[in-house]
Amino acid sequence: MKIFHGRQDGAPSQVKSATFTGTVHADPVMPSMDGVVINNVFFSPGARTYWHTHETGQILTVTAGKGWVCMEGEAAQELKAGDTVWIAKDEKHWHGAADDSFLLHTAISLGRTEWLEEVAETDYPTAAK
Question: How far apart are the C-alpha atoms of 16 and 22, rounded to whole Å?
Answer without folding.
Answer: 9
